[in-house]
Amino acid sequence: MCPKLFRRWPSWAVLPFLVACTTPSPVPRAADGWHPVSLPGKRATHYAQVVKAGRPALLAEADRSASLMRRHWPLAADQLGEVRFSWWVAAPLSGANLAEAGLGDSPARVLFAFDGDHARLSSRNRLMFDLAESISGERPPYATLMYVFGNRPEHLGRTIVHTRTDRIRKIVLDAGPAHAGQWRDHRRNLAEDFRQAFGEAPGRLLSVAVLTDADNTQQQAQAWYGPVEIRALSD
User: Fold this and answer.
1) 235 found inside a domain
2) For 227, which of 34, 98, 112, 189 is 20 to 30 Å away at the CA?
């Protein structure tokens, strides 16, 4: 541990790692394993089971807030197959920019956290991992791949490296008002997307989460998530 180095970084510098941490929540879990996870210093996004346009859904309502619903989902790297998920976003967040620090809010995200060889991390990332672990009690995953709903149509299809760490990368699947106000269904090859985003093969899958946040832009966001499905190659 390096306390003098840690004092150089404010707490927000390690929040991206805390988003991806696999620390169990003290809140009782639902029967399907999904459970809420709060973030230090952040107001909690409200999540509730509802029906949206005839589909069972998880409603997420953010009011200048950021928190997750997460499920531990261990799966060996050689078993990673297709993932399916869907979201309905009420509206994009005006002024949000996934590529700019301090503006990276998104009304809908699906996150996949992966294990890997932590000895390969840069010295900066190792220090930030140590600090995040000291705050949360759990070491962050080696890498996190996010599928996101963006505000800017020009970001559509891009992979965006997080502004504070290259261990989090975001693939923009939908963007702008043209994709809002409707169910958007997505099917992705998780292992191939990881290779394209990080330039290496994925490790073991650790967990899956959804996140609706509007804390940076101090706005309100509303989204509905359909079930997340992962097809293991042995299925």
Assistant:
1) no
2) 98
Query: How many domains in the chain?
Result: 1
Domain of residue 45 covers: 3-230
The answer to whether position 219 is within a domain reads: yes
Angle (nearest 5°) at CA 57 between 140 and 20: 5
- Name the residue type at position 129: F
Pairing assessment for the beta strands 143-150 and 109-114 based on DSSP bridges = antiparallel
Q: Mind listing the pLDDT tens digit of every residue in the chain (235 residues)?
A: 333 333 343 334 445 555 666 444 444 445 578 999 998 889 999 999 999 999 999 999 999 999 999 999 999 999 999 999 999 999 999 999 999 989 999 999 999 999 999 999 999 899 888 888 888 777 889 999 999 999 999 999 999 999 888 999 999 999 999 999 999 999 999 999 999 999 999 999 999 999 999 999 999 999 999 999 999 887 6
CA 128 to CA 138: how far, in whole Å? Answer: 13
Nearest to 95 by CA among 157, 161, 164, 151: 151
Q: Taking the CA atoms of the chain, what radius of gyration do you get in angstroms? A: 17
